[in-house]
Amino acid sequence: MARFTPFVTAVCTAAALVAASPSLAATPATPSGGAGAALPAARSGTVQELSLTSSHLADPYRYTVYLPRGYESDCLSYPVVYLLHGASGNERDWLDKGKVAPTLDRLIAEERIPPVVVVMPGHRAMWWVDGHADKAETVLLDDLLPEVEKRFRVSKEREGRVFAGLSAGGFATVRFAFTRPELFAVGLALSPAVYQPVPPQNSSAVKDPTFQKDGAFDAELWKRLNWPALVEGYKAQPLRVPLYLNSGDHDRFDIVYHAAVLYQELRRIQPGSVEYRVVDGDHEWPVWEHTIGDALGYAAKYIKGPQSAMTVAAGDTSHVPTGGSSADATVQNGASCR
Predict the structure, then answer these.
(1) Domain coordinates of the chain in residue numbers?
(2) pTM
(3) Distance between CA atoms of 95 and 227, rounded to whole angstroms?
(4) Residue 61: what are its φ and ψ, rounded to 5°?
(5) Which sign does the torsion angle of CA 111, 116, 122, 126 carry?
(6) Mean predicted lDDT score pLDDT of the chain
(7) Does the pLDDT at position 329 exceed 70?
(8) Which helix (DSSP H) or strand (DSSP E) does residue 107 occupy?
(9) Cα pseudo-dihedral 158, 169, 104, 96, rounded to 10
(10) Cα(126)–Cα(135) distance, rounded to whole angstroms?
(11) Helices marked H in 139-218 — which ranges?
(12) Least confident of 23-27, 93-97, 159-163, 174-178
């Protein structure tokens, strides 16, 4: 297997790839997966705003959850998408700026994706890593995932989990694919901030607290956490995580190039399990709003649809949400299912 090419060689390779390949030519950022008119309420999913307490954080950890239509009335266990925001985002970004709820409603109604639960956590400026500030990776994987699996009827299997995100969330999705491939079946990295060797000066990474050491950007930490340092370990183990990558062709951070370098390496490792889309646009919400549907359609090929849930004993209150009632637990986890 070819080893990771030197950075200078990769520059030429990626530039030629983006310029010459018809499959990577920039296309309008309005594929059929973008947000459209909202469906009637009777055909729409619901959204909950929640929080959890973590021993690693001083404040509550907020997250939102999209539940597909029918979740409250059936006894199924659903595939789950963990959808991450960018460096400056929060738990409502994908809902308010990305309009992901109506997109999900429509994709499910058109049977282009199976009904899914989508979890959108909020952890601003932490890049989803255990850096010099909060232990964002630990909270996400060790606190949030078990909490979601306790509160909601979601898959606990690799084949029922998807990780996805934009920018810093895309950076994290790629990292988790390389470091925790046993956790999820497919990854979706929209405009992933996979800068190498280091981020550009206009990236928030150079000033966000997770990469700050003694008042300066810690380049060595960035390099240690970024995918080039992780790729050999990924290649040495048997699991492969299919990855969907994209970028706007006018991305102000040159992610169109950086993602192409990653794409070329993944083509060598898993040629049949990686896609790269270049669309018209910058590093901006219209790109992510209008391509998340295409990305989810890619993920649908690799995940199991809803499955019959195990019976939960009536009266079980172990899954009652904080501040909720046993009736809440019945709705959330199907305690009355038989």
Answers:
(1) 7-302, 306-338
(2) 0.86
(3) 28
(4) -100, 115
(5) negative
(6) 87
(7) no
(8) helix 100-109
(9) 150
(10) 8
(11) 145-151, 168-179
(12) 23-27
